[in-house]
Amino acid sequence: MTGFAQVLAAAERHDDGWELEVPESWLQGRTAYGGFSSALALAVAQQAGGELAPLRSAQLAMMAPVNGKIVARAKVERQGRNATWISAHLSSGAGMAFAANFVFMRPTANTLEINDRPLPDSVVPLDDALPIPADALTVFMRSHFDVRFGMPEADRKRPEMCWWLRSRDHGRLDPMVELMLCGDGLPPAVIPVMPQPVPISSMHWQVNLLTATPQSRDGWWLLRSTGDYAQQGCSSQGMGLWNAGGEPIATGIQSVALFG
C-alpha cells in the first residue's frame, strides 16, 4: 500500500503545481478519502507560502471526484502582518474537484481565555479501547490507519460516531498535514440511525485549530462527530478532535449529502 508520505515524495513538483496519481488504496468509492485531499491541499499550500505561521483555520470543499492523475496548485491570496491566506485546489482532466482556503496566523496577546471543549462523557480511554475489526472498515481506512472504538457499544445507536484513530504515517509528515489526514476519518454521524444504507458524499468541511502545535501520545487522536440535522438530502454535523491526554486540538462542522 502507498502511504501518504510516499504519495507526497512521488509527486512531480513544478513551478505551477504538483502532479500525482491518486493510489487506489486511498479511494472511498469514486473519490479520494476527504482527509487525503485536505492533507494534500495543505501540503501544497505550505510550499506555496514559504515560511508560514501555524495553521489556524481551513475551509474545504469537496466538489467532484478526486481520482486518477490530478494536479494540485496553491496561491497566496493575502499576506498580512499576523496572518496569511492561501487558496489551494485539486483538479483533473474534468476540471476542479476540490478547493481549500487556509489561514495561517501567529499567536498574539489577548485578554480573553476560553477553553470549553471537554471530552465526551462516555469516552473509552485509549488504553482500554478495542480495535475495530478490519472487515468493518473501508479499504482506505484499514490500509492506512489504526482504529479503535471510542465509545461503549450501548452508545453507538445515536447520530454520533467516536473513534480513536492513528495514521500509519505518524512521524513522517508535518504535524498539521498529519492532523488533516486523520481529521476526516469518521463516517458521517447519522449512519448509526439511518434505516438503510444509502450513498453519501461530504460536501464542505470547516476546521478550526485550537493549538499551534498539535501533539498526541504515539500519534493517536480521538475523533467525534454528532449529527444535528438531516432533511431533504442534506445533513449537518459538529466535529471535535482531542489528543490522547484529553486536550482539545480542533473543532469543526461538516455538511454531508444523503442520496436516499
UniProtKB/TrEMBL annotation:
Domain Acyl-CoA thioesterase-like C-terminal: 139-257
One Pfam family named in its UniProt record: 4HBT_3C
Residue span(s) of domain Acyl-CoA thioesterase-like N-terminal HotDog: 23-105
InterPro entries with a match to the protein in the record: ACOT8-like_C, Acyl-CoA_hotdog, HotDog_dom_sf, TesB_ACOT8-like_N
Residue ranges the record marks as coiled coil: none
Signal peptide: none
Name listed for the protein in its UniProt record: Thioesterase-like superfamily protein
UniProt source species: Novosphingobium mathurense
